[in-house]
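Honest question from a wet-lab person: if I give you the sequences of every part of a complex, can you actually get the arrangement of the whole thing, not just the pieces? Trying it with mine:
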Amino acid sequence: MRSHDPDLILAYSIAELRLSLAFVAFELLDSRAGFRPDQPRGCDGRWCGEGGSLTVVRKDRTGDPRIDGKTDEILDILKDVVESTEPGEGFLYGIRIHANLAARLRALDLPGIGRHGVEQSFAAGDIVRHGLSGSIRTDVLLRDGRTSAAPIKAIWDIKTGDEGLSPSRIRALRAGAGVDATVPVIEIHLLRGMSVKSRVSVAVTIGVVIA
Amino acid sequence: MSMEAYALCRRPLASVSEWQAGLDALGLDLQLRSDKIPPALSGHLPATRRGRQSGFECSNISLSELRDFYPDIDFGGSWSCAYAFNFGTISESIGALMAIAACVHVVRGLAYYPEDGRLLSADQAVQYARDTVPGIEDLEVRLGAGQA
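Yes, you can. This is the full assembly:
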């Protein structure tokens, strides 16, 4: 039997309105996260297989468990960044991925990388301030110790779109950081990051680069 | 994190002042803050825009390496030099877009953006910069200036 109590009717109306607002807010949050209801999820509830996720199509290893483990960590973070970034393509999408990944890596302050190991500027092997004329900046680097004087063990370079890491860039990164050809330069290449399946490859360069 | 782009030129840029004059003529509000350009300089080329650092890395790259590295791209023409640009932050990206546009406009070259596979004539590169910069500025507002 329906109540005709005005207070009760008002309370129902307010509750209905609040529920509607909650659904609107939920939809907005989904939109910002790039959620699509047709995307499949794994048993752990995470997106898998389609837009907003990554499939690793190639993963070179250096053979050094610490470096390879760090590559896996960076890949996991890149996956999270791609999942939480609105699908897109081209120049602006690349900027979004690069900016979000740098911010995430700095915030995580990973052991051996730290905040200073993300986008560090060098000149002839010395750390210099960002923006110094003639300096070279690495994307991510791992040191064998906690101080900035500790030897560099590996350099990662993140690429998006069609571009790869050119041999001259590899040489410039090594020269800038003051390391020799025994230090691997690891290219993590997000091959595609759109509404269809995204792919990522990891290529390791050790030794002299000829081109 | 860094992205790359290239400028293929019929002749090398003569000087910073020639490059700056190209920017000014196009109405692109970027000020180059270097007294050297490649090949005298290789690495970060300081620049500012609206009082903020908007520099980018710039160096010469051999045409043969560029052709070997992007074998599917027909760069055509006879180019006497090529510049490679590397940039990562939002403000650097704006600086690089403008500098590349002015460079290829001055020397009537081509711009190549591997990020989205675009090979652009000088006029197209200028238009690309004009069209893309507002989107980057909008992105900066959304992401927050802290990441720029």
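Two things worth pointing out. Chain A touches chain B at residues 89-92, 94-103, 119, 121, 123, 130-137, 139, 157-164, 166-169, 172, 176, 211 (CB under 8 Å). The radius of gyration of chain A is 23 Å.
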